[in-house]
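Problem statement: downstream parser choked on a complex file, so we are re-checking the raw output for the fructose -6-phosphate run. The parser issue turned out to be on our end (a line-ending mismatch), but while we're here, posting the original submission so the record is complete.
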Amino acid sequence: MCGIIGYVGKNDATNVLIKGLHRLEYRGYDSAGIALITQNDIFLRKVAGRVNELAQTIEVSVPQSNVGIAHTRWATHGVPNDVNAHPHTDCKNRFAVVHNGIIENYRTLKKFLEEKNHKFISDTDSEVIPHLIEEFYNGDMMAAVKKSCSYLEGTYGLVIISLDCPDRIIVARMGSPLVIGKGKDEYIAASDLAAIISHTDQVIYLKDGEIAEVEKDHVKIDRRDVGLITPEIEHVTLTLEQIERGGYDHFMLKEICEQPVILRDTIRGRLNYDDGIARLNGIADYTERLRDADRIIIVACGTSWHAALIGEYMIESLAGIPVEVEYGSEFRYRKPVLNKRTVCIVVSQSGETADTLAALREAKRHGVSVLGICNVVGSTIARETDAGIYIHAGPEIGVASTKAFLAQIMTFALLSLLLGRLRRLSIDEGRIIIEAIKRIPDELSDLLECLPQQIKEIAMTFKDHKNFLYLGRGYNFPVALEGALKLKEISYIHAEGYPAAEMKHGPIALIDKDMPVVVIAIKDAIYDKVLSNIEEIRARYGIVIAVCSEGDTDLKKYVDHAICVPYTIDPLYPLLTVLPLQLLAYYIADFKGLDVDKPRNLAKSVTVE
Ligand code: F6R
């Protein structure tokens, strides 16, 4: 959740750390702090607020240093204020720690440490860590960190500095991501690559249970129960430009506009027109197991869960395999009925979502094959699944997920095509799907040319409304959920998504002349039914904003605003119908003057339970 970074090397640590924090800010941004090794002590500054405020605070007073750590926070324990901000230190300010994760047994540890006269000043769980190190330090820093970690229950990514070892940082991981970048005479450790790639493309992914001692020209890794191991250096291909805004006002808008390109990347090399089938090398060894599965369980959270629902509809209708979709947070605590013929698929943009990861591990404990649909290469979920498909959406920085959603849906389309062809679709049916898939990127490009102006006008009209309803049926029901989620997240307007026909079982009571209802009413198999739902709204003076099929002149007469999308085959409609909903949420939030890329209370990667 939080962003952490540490630096040791020939350059000015403050500069590297502040720049890195800016890149990590999407992970959390309610407070920030920095600790630097100076000649005689540890320089420490922490502020409630954003990284910019931290940078301004230290501008004039910061000492020269080549070793330091920094943190941008998303509060879990303790309100966002200066004291609760990281880094945290021990009683004598000899050790400073930045932590990402949650220490579940911190109350017990705090009591244990207080009995030994340690003084705590914050309400955080993290503060126990420097005090544990202080308690166990006996001249050997690695040993003290190792022993402290053995006391911790929960999750952590840690970067630690100590006055006694002023030439190094110590990095430890259990359940929270950590990458170490190797530069020339410098190392940078951070929660993700965004803070590293402007320095180097050589990285070491730290694994759970590993602790690294990092000096400017040397790294030593100790793995729990194994001892010292040789670090594996990997080469990453991500460019800095890929994670910068590229002239757009917000990352979210950039990412919406990138969607045609992204989908070309998602399908590149994966369609075989001659055989009317998709090729997914990442899961090649598991294709038969999937084909013969008696049940597929898809686990995800948030927007990825909505993509999973669309995946369920696709797999069931094209391949005829029963599918269930579960929230990671529910699955992990249920007693799911699983057998050898069940296959689990976990879907996650970040590959780090704690609930999804826990569900993955739970499924594995039951001996089930677990496949991943992930965006972030090398993420924990990508590494822990038996096999998987990367969606190739590139770095998604805007907190509200957009392009990853489309790439996940497209990935499900490829998977359903593959399984469908292995089970019941003919070559010709497969080819029809492939043709439709190939048309989608251009159709999205065309929509991105013509929709923004119309949607800006609608957004201006409705930006001050307090409630919205979103309705859709079939493949477009999850799109309604996603449209409502996007609006809630970034504009703070209350919105609910429903299957259109469910409206009459309750939500219809909300409809009056002030209630905008966004209805996805494209000419698919259940178009006429949705028209009846629109009539029901109109009969109660509700305002209808319809997402409809191009050329549907009849519908235009019945609704207040009609946003048209081109025809495609039913399973692929969500790829087109969600675009106007993403833009609507974006422009409403922008017109309200809100911080689109960093909505309040949210974080990009939810690595806590
Ligand atoms: C919504 C959003 C979240 C994420 C959810 C899961 O815009 O981004 O709902 O979809 O936190 O995240 P991942 O996909 O990274 O597991």
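For whoever reads this later: The pocket of fructose -6-phosphate is lined by residues 301-304, 348-350, 353, 356, 400-401, 485, 489, 605-606 (CB under 6 Å).
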